[in-house]
Amino acid sequence: MSTPYTAPLREMSFALKELGGLDAVLAQSDGSELSADLVEPILEEAGRFASEVLAPLNAPGDREGCRWQDGAVRTPEGFAAAYASFCETGWHGMPAEVELGGQGMPTLLSTAVLEMWKSANHAFSLCQMLTLGAVEAIRRHATPELQARYLPAMVAGRWTGTMNITEPQAGSDLSAIRSRAVPEGEHYRITGTKIFITWGEHDLAENIVHLVLARLPDAPPGVKGLSLFLCPKVLVNADGSLGARNDLVCASIEHKLGIHACSTAVMAFGEQGGATGWLVGAPHEGLACMFTMMNHARLNVGLEGLALSERAYQQARAYALDRVQGRGVGLGPDGPRTIIGHPDVRRMLMAMKSRVEAMRGLAYYTAGRMDRAHGHPDAAQRAEAQALVDLLTPIVKAWCTEQAQGITALGVQVHGGMGFIEETGAAQHQRDARITTIYEGTTGIQANDLLNRKLVRDGGATLGRLLREVQDEARGLAGHGDATLRAIGDALLRAAASLEAATAHLLVRHAATPRESFAGAVPYLMLCGTVLGGWLLARGAEAAVTQLASGSGDTDFLAAKRSTAWHYAMNVLPEAAGLGEIVCHGAASVLALDDAQF
Amino acid sequence: MSTPYTAPLREMSFALKELGGLDAVLAQSDGSELSADLVEPILEEAGRFASEVLAPLNAPGDREGCRWQDGAVRTPEGFAAAYASFCETGWHGMPAEVELGGQGMPTLLSTAVLEMWKSANHAFSLCQMLTLGAVEAIRRHATPELQARYLPAMVAGRWTGTMNITEPQAGSDLSAIRSRAVPEGEHYRITGTKIFITWGEHDLAENIVHLVLARLPDAPPGVKGLSLFLCPKVLVNADGSLGARNDLVCASIEHKLGIHACSTAVMAFGEQGGATGWLVGAPHEGLACMFTMMNHARLNVGLEGLALSERAYQQARAYALDRVQGRGVGLGPDGPRTIIGHPDVRRMLMAMKSRVEAMRGLAYYTAGRMDRAHGHPDAAQRAEAQALVDLLTPIVKAWCTEQAQGITALGVQVHGGMGFIEETGAAQHQRDARITTIYEGTTGIQANDLLNRKLVRDGGATLGRLLREVQDEARGLAGHGDATLRAIGDALLRAAASLEAATAHLLVRHAATPRESFAGAVPYLMLCGTVLGGWLLARGAEAAVTQLASGSGDTDFLAAKRSTAWHYAMNVLPEAAGLGEIVCHGAASVLALDDAQF
């Protein structure tokens, strides 16, 4: 049994326009021919591909998984054909620049399209994500020769890309990386073992381009001694044709909780003397080059949290509308007999729906600011937008993925006992989502990044600007003519006050008691996400009320926008006060025990 | 790789004495020979069996799972031998009455022992739980002849028991049950299909005694037309020897997210004309008979939430103390390099530890009240204790199992990428825990029971008495000489005020707007659990401070008790205010959408 997926086009269009700032993004478009009337057809086409080609492979791919034999990995049935079609139709290279063979689509629009791939088939979608991340790192940091030799095939999807960072002793702590690179003429000999390499080996493409963090012989210790190398699985001749196999091999793949259809490889470099690699970027600056990939990947992983939650919501909604199991309390004899009539089932569905929309709001808002940071004609606007993107990146990554844990679990819960049976498909979404709070930097790493590099480093300036915007809008709503919007505005004001207090607390105390402020970093990040998600839902509700008043648009849909924001304001924003208290008063007790007392 | 488990004997003894009221339970002991100085040896012996026999089979059992072939089920390697040893050593029958061949242990003490089985091997432990539940139903409701024929072998574990309730169309809604029973002489012919039958078929014992809900020909519709029948897998001769196979078969077993080592069977009754069954209890009163099993099972499933959380905590703690991965911020060059030095890792471990202890407090407190309800010499005390147990049963069941979702997920998170790899074992605890919020009545069912039957029905009298006790103790702590206890008392007073307000709201509004109050039932149950868990931790902290002041006991352990309660007060109790707001103000928006707007 494979559960269907339908791209939520109406929701996406609304979020693109009202929260992502699509019109402004299209208006600043720099010579690319994308006109506004192409947006809907692109989304519809992508939705069709996601529903018809990728989604049906999701459950079978989970069941079959990848299989390793003698260094080769066989992907589940149907994946190779789907991948070939994905590349042929141009979806693979779509987000990449036009000069590289892509379609130069704004990040905002490609974010909506990527959401679809991730909802339809998370495991499949990771291959494109990794490849385009590698494309970005090569485009920015590699020599023109390397770019010319590798990028066209990678953008087209004929060759895929990977990030080789983690080693058995070096996970979150990259300073412990031991892989070595020794110069030999124009290239290097790479040796070492890398683990957790997503799509590190497979049968979808004829070559795999590994980007590998390793140390040169004269490298200083720590993260400042890491350099980045390009190591193809198959060496590439000067004319672009494929040559001999490189000295690297997939030693095994992991048996994982989820994303079974993508290989998570242990890669052994240089067992025959050294894999041939080329330096990308300057020596000892590998970490900065890698972060080019990483920051983009972090936003995309946040998007996975949204996408898996959306898929879980669709499945739970379909089950609740179909499953007959007693009439809900307080419904008359003619009331529906499906479980959506039960107040607690509605509670679960509303919790899923309103959080999904809040996540989509935050992800698309951030994507829209990325376009502004790249393409706005005014430099000051670009800089301000970039600061905002930097601030929001860890929040989108960690908040959306943590939300996804609870939402996909609710998806199982709505199914009752059937949710625990693997054939139902609900459990897969929860298993697949489990990795998203871990890879590309755990939730704890994101929270440290938010606190240390994004909040404290600029003295709270960027967060303060954003918070004032939230508070101004909340005050406006609190005085609105619509009673529901007033209730939303009041709730948002209270939640924003908690964020303001927690922020002030951390800024004052961080220097003196850094261990305490880091102990409160994750609750602080969750507080930021909770408030910002509520703000964007409130913004959407106000737009919906305006459209309702003007008599335009789909009345049911717009009224639901208002109700959903109201739900979030009354059922999610109340968590903000508690989170604020935890940040301000909870940390000392977190650190109260000795190691031996645990 | 199989992860070790060590029974937390010091924690258990503390909770038994200070929160479960062990001394009072032993003092009221009615003729059974259990003396206080046997308690520790029993716990130690049980702990050894759990660690040495059951825990090592947990991960291999998960990997191998149960296998079905031609109606028979083969359990994983080692399970049959462990089960035989479990029965021979008397652990199987230990909680049962002495006159049945058990050891008549107080529920409080057997609760601690059952916690160990569940921590060590959740799947294995379910077999004993189901069997003893069936024993209880037969002992209370079946004829003396049936009791004599079945109980001795069941208490000894030579035969196991099951509950056959669910059918494909009848999950939470038992009124939809269709299985039929037709009288034939002194027995009945049973036909129908039952699903989700835990340990419904296996190779551990020579017979399986199924208790089956079915309808007599003259049964009224709905739940008042259900009768309970005893249907053995193998018919039992008058002399107690085994006869022919009954007309019932395991048609298949489910492929589940977790508890792979126990079979979850589809049972087909009467495919050859009708399984032979005997009526248990009066006709049409099967539901009441079944609830005898169910209420006990609900407390035991709550205990599973605690037990799996404890196991996950032990594993995460061991990893955090062992894994070297960068030195924690603010630690000097001589500080530990293991990840427990990182504030965020400590945050996760403290969140696990303090919630585990709160859950243990609530579970043991309830178990102690069960003993009082059964054995207190004063009838009024017995009645009051029983009312408390009835109130607390859905809270223990649903709150502990919902807590377990987050705690076992944190267990994975502490492991970083390794947590997602199945060999690590952390993911199994999360997968196994996933069923606990579903079976024996979902969280939503428990919340409805709490609201409707336990709160509203007595006008809030029982909850009110308990809440006043909480508030009195909190006020006492708020004026204590110990500053940490004062902080705990203040936090508990605030949280209790939220519970008081939410309770008043529901009592006032339930009759007029039942759909709204049911929409707030789960948040209300979580609020109850949060406050009561904090209360019992606070009570433990006060006892620890008293012992510290007297100079008795283990200083480090007692100081940790205070710190852990403080952590909960500062990091978990702040959630209460938000939950209270959601109960009082959130429900209308939960119900705001039409079905079509989802």
From TrEMBL, chains A, B:
Catalyzed reaction equations: 3-(methylsulfanyl)propanoyl-CoA + oxidized [electron-transfer flavoprotein] + H(+) = 3-(methylsulfanyl)acryloyl-CoA + reduced [electron-transfer flavoprotein]
Segments forming domain Acyl-CoA dehydrogenase/oxidase C-terminal: 285-453
Domain Acyl-CoA dehydrogenase/oxidase N-terminal, first and last residues per copy: 42-157
Cofactor(s) of this protein: FAD
Ranges of residues in domain Acyl-CoA oxidase/dehydrogenase middle: 163-268
Keywords: FAD, Flavoprotein, Oxidoreductase
Enzyme Commission designation: 1.3.99.41
InterPro entries per record: Acyl-CoA_dh-like_C_dom, Acyl-CoA_Oxase/DH_mid-dom, Acyl-CoA_Oxase/DH_mid-dom_sf, AcylCo_DH-like_C, AcylCo_DH/oxidase_C, AcylCoA_DH/ox_N, AcylCoA_DH/ox_N_sf, AcylCoA_DH/oxidase_NM_dom_sf
MF annotations from Gene Ontology: flavin adenine dinucleotide binding; oxidoreductase activity, acting on the CH-CH group of donors
Domain Acetyl-CoA dehydrogenase-like C-terminal: 467-594
Function per UniProt: Involved in the assimilation of dimethylsulphoniopropionate (DMSP), an important compound in the fixation of carbon in marine phytoplankton, by mediating the conversion of 3-(methylthio)propanoyl-CoA (MMPA-CoA) to 3-(methylthio)acryloyl-CoA (MTA-CoA).
Record family assignment: Belongs to the acyl-CoA dehydrogenase family.
Name by which UniProt lists this protein: 3-methylmercaptopropionyl-CoA dehydrogenase
